[in-house]
């Protein structure tokens, strides 16, 4: 039987009644997304309609998932909430802290020794509070979730931006910060602005080298990294039904790269087949009984432009393989145009490494399609020109792939099989390289390719493609190679052409595993001790943030005016800093060290207004904090895009930054700032960004009348004695203003729990 099947049955028991009530209050046919959203209102049966893109709504998610890097802070926060057990089914997955260096077995052993105290903490806190624990090596959170926990029509939040992967099984799954997870685990409603809806109609059917990955690579090219912000992307049409469940998951997973709240497909036979293949026939049977509620109403499909805020159409029969990049996941190149782009832009043509796997593309089907290409390197006597690595998504996939000879195929090609973990996708890659500053090219089947993302090297040009295209490019060792049209010279001097990839959706012999890596929690955790050493440099119990002092904020110093793209990787880098995810003081030493200072075009170099000297960003901010002076961070467009990591919000809060003032925010980061009691403000006139000067002292006025929809006033005191004044907008509602006044949302949770 599936995990938490009783919970799933309760969701389905209420689904029909709630969908019909929603249809009545909205007054029209409903999309799939609307059905699931209205069925998960914290108030229960819908009694009013909510305007998309404007109304804040309280929801009651069915479950929570956390990966080990973000789970540390999420659970440290949950410990402050005062509850004996989580209110909804929750899981922790140890996938982020395993560094890829040599190979699966040795890397996993190294990680277990290096991270033992963190794993012990996560295991003990999970055991105490009723949380399912997936041990290191069990797999990547999103692959494990789609194999075990995702269910059609459900709603889940997860402390990782690629949580939407579960949309491949028709689940509303949304990436959040740890504070949001803490709320839901504590039994409180979870707040979200009612998303807009983007419809993507898929016609035709994929063939040849084209894959599900190419659908989202194409969509990313259309919508860009912020085109999906505030929206759910809903895929439909006969083309959608032709895709496997894990292929759908790939598309939903990478929807995070367009800023989408989440992405989703309607329930269909391919999902039912995957549920049955992964020993969840009970869910498939239950979903079948309510399948009319697990798809949009017929009227929506008949006239989609009337029901979606934006509509995109893609013919899968005409879709080319795409390669996206470098440095951004939305720079989309059809394969037929890619070689020309490489040459015209002067990108390094030689391909040094090809990497497949990750949470985006590590299903059994992905591995079979790649293996069908890899096998040709041996059978056609081709010498593989690039390094090649394989990251299985879970122990279930790895064990099955090994049994069926797929891993042996990759090793025969010269590939290295890494641990079932995130690895190079998130910068956990000890790359062997002669000169880390040398311009070079890599290609991955991952999701993100920001500068320094994979190997910490700003000169690495990272491109994103499907696993089979990555495999073909690795064999060729050349970014100008087109496997659809070009030939390669084998060891005998013969010209050979790669055949089109062939995939197997589900293993013929079924899935198999000896130890999936799951640890169930204690029935009664009251006697379990949570393991945190007071002398640890990896873990640190939290102290509550102070409440707002009740006045306007005066005399704040400008910490940094960030120029251009400033992602959560720039604000709080991953890679070697992952080890401090449970220690707020230590990890705060990476705050904004990747952001480019507008005034000197340097990273990690800002002016200390107390001394007039330049210093590292965290050091300057610590100096302001020691002097009792608050500060302001100024940013550009889509500030905080990328990973959901809440450390990017907690670090400035901890070090005394009072406000983040930007041209626009990425959704998750803006929410994270609010949760931590920060002021998240946007320029009412984006051109006012240009008024910020390096030596500015800043006042924020209007806080004593802080109210929804009412702008605050910014006063800049320049070093020459002049001033500038302008308005700053915000999106705080009444509840979020209470978070600010209390000092953090968690402070309110604790007050209510102890009341």
TrEMBL record:
<dbReference type="InterPro" id="IPR000573">
    <property type="entry name" value="AconitaseA/IPMdHydase_ssu_swvl"/>
</dbReference>
<dbReference type="InterPro" id="IPR050926">
    <property type="entry name" value="Aconitase/IPM_isomerase"/>
</dbReference>
<dbReference type="InterPro" id="IPR001030">
    <property type="entry name" value="Acoase/IPM_deHydtase_lsu_aba"/>
</dbReference>
<dbReference type="InterPro" id="IPR036008">
    <property type="entry name" value="Aconitase_4Fe-4S_dom"/>
</dbReference>
<dbReference type="InterPro" id="IPR015932">
    <property type="entry name" value="Aconitase_dom2"/>
</dbReference>
<dbReference type="GO" id="GO:0046872">
    <property type="term" value="F:metal ion binding"/>
</dbReference>
<dbReference type="GO" id="GO:0051539">
    <property type="term" value="F:4 iron, 4 sulfur cluster binding"/>
</dbReference>
<dbReference type="InterPro" id="IPR018136">
    <property type="entry name" value="Aconitase_4Fe-4S_BS"/>
</dbReference>
<keyword id="KW-0411">Iron-sulfur</keyword>
<keyword id="KW-0809">Transit peptide</keyword>
<dbReference type="GO" id="GO:0006099">
    <property type="term" value="P:tricarboxylic acid cycle"/>
</dbReference>
<keyword id="KW-0408">Iron</keyword>
<keyword id="KW-0479">Metal-binding</keyword>
<keyword id="KW-0456">Lyase</keyword>
<dbReference type="Pfam" id="PF00694">
    <property type="entry name" value="Aconitase_C"/>
</dbReference>
<dbReference type="InterPro" id="IPR006248">
    <property type="entry name" value="Aconitase_mito-like"/>
</dbReference>
<comment type="similarity">
    <text>Belongs to the aconitase/IPM isomerase family.</text>
</comment>
<dbReference type="Pfam" id="PF00330">
    <property type="entry name" value="Aconitase"/>
</dbReference>
<dbReference type="GO" id="GO:0005829">
    <property type="term" value="C:cytosol"/>
</dbReference>
<dbReference type="InterPro" id="IPR015928">
    <property type="entry name" value="Aconitase/3IPM_dehydase_swvl"/>
</dbReference>
<feature type="domain" description="Aconitase/3-isopropylmalate dehydratase large subunit alpha/beta/alpha">
    <location>
        <begin position="34"/>
        <end position="477"/>
    </location>
</feature>
<dbReference type="InterPro" id="IPR015931">
    <property type="entry name" value="Acnase/IPM_dHydase_lsu_aba_1/3"/>
</dbReference>
<feature type="domain" description="Aconitase A/isopropylmalate dehydratase small subunit swivel">
    <location>
        <begin position="558"/>
        <end position="685"/>
    </location>
</feature>
<comment type="pathway">
    <text>Carbohydrate metabolism; tricarboxylic acid cycle; isocitrate from oxaloacetate: step 2/2.</text>
</comment>
<keyword id="KW-0816">Tricarboxylic acid cycle</keyword>
<dbReference type="GO" id="GO:0003994">
    <property type="term" value="F:aconitate hydratase activity"/>
</dbReference>
<protein>
    <recommendedName>
        <fullName>Aconitate hydratase A</fullName>
        <ecNumber>4.2.1.3</ecNumber>
    </recommendedName>
</protein>
